[in-house]
């Protein structure tokens, strides 16, 4: 009898530990998950709704998640599926013909970075949805091509192609010719790069 009770106790402890670990990992993923949600929805309120739905669905399906696999990719997949399910239900995407939503994107407060980021976000918003999704998954969210392909439910070659086309299009729209296009201008660069005694 004591052996049975011990086994039950171990199972309860293990379940509680798994639940705590699942919750902790899910909370740690929320910032990058929210950035991905915003890149899809392009509105903060819709992104927040997506996050809420994703968390609720993930929590309800946590028993189907296999410990040791990539929880982050699993959550991104749930969020992406929820987004496109909502789009199918609505029959269309939220229109933004005047660029109102795109113009309200938050930017980094640094002087040069703010201008560069505004230009970049404007260009990113002009990419086709599939290319924007691919480059956000690879470039901003840090997924491998294989993970991004699994999240988007396409072949790895398709993801690579979308990312390459997105990069080429961004480079064209931003007229980037090299690595030195971003950062301090010619006037401020010497000040930023100046060597001080003892350095």
TrEMBL record:
Keywords associated with the record: DNA-binding, Sigma factor, Transcription, Transcription regulation
Family membership: Belongs to the sigma-70 factor family. ECF subfamily.
Entry keyword annotation includes Transcription regulation: yes
A Pfam cross-reference name: Sigma70_r4_2
Keyword presence, Transmembrane helix: no
Domain RNA polymerase sigma-70 region: 29-92
Source organism per UniProt: Hoeflea ulvae
The protein, known as: RNA polymerase sigma factor
InterPro entries per the UniProt record, alphabetical: RNA_pol_sigma-70-like (IPR039425), RNA_pol_sigma-70_dom (IPR014284), RNA_pol_sigma70_ECF_CS (IPR000838), RNA_pol_sigma70_r2 (IPR007627), RNA_pol_sigma70_r4_t2 (IPR013249), RNA_pol_sigma_r2 (IPR013325), RNA_pol_sigma_r3/r4-like (IPR013324), WH-like_DNA-bd_sf (IPR036388)
Residue ranges of the region described as Disordered: 180-199
Segments forming domain RNA polymerase sigma factor 70 region 4 type: 120-170
SUPFAM superfamilies, sorted: Sigma2 domain of RNA polymerase sigma factors, Sigma3 and sigma4 domains of RNA polymerase sigma factors
């Amino acid at each position: 009898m004591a052996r049975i009770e011990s086994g039950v106790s171990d199972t309860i402890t293990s379940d509680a530990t798994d639940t705590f670990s699942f919750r902790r990992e899910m909370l740690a993923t929320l910032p990058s998950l929210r950035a991905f949600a915003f890149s899809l929805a392009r509105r903060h309120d819709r992104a927040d709704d997506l996050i809420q739905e994703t968390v609720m669905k993930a929590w309800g399906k946590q028993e189907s998640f296999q410990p040791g696999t990539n929880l982050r990719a699993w959550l991104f997949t749930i969020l992406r599926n929820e987004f496109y399910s909502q789009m199918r239900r609505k029959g269309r995407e939220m229109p933004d013909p005047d660029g109102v939503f795109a113009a309200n994107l938050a930017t980094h407060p640094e002087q040069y970075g703010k201008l560069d980021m505004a230009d970049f976000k404007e260009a990113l918003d002009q990419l086709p949805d599939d290319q924007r999704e691919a480059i956000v998954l690879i470039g901003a969210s840090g997924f491998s091509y294989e993970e991004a392909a699994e999240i988007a439910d396409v072949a790895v070659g398709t993801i690579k192609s979308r990312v390459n086309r997105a990069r080429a299009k961004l480079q064209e729209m931003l007229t980037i010719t090299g690595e030195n296009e971003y950062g301090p201008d010619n006037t401020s660069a010497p000040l930023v790069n100046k060597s001080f005694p003892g350095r």
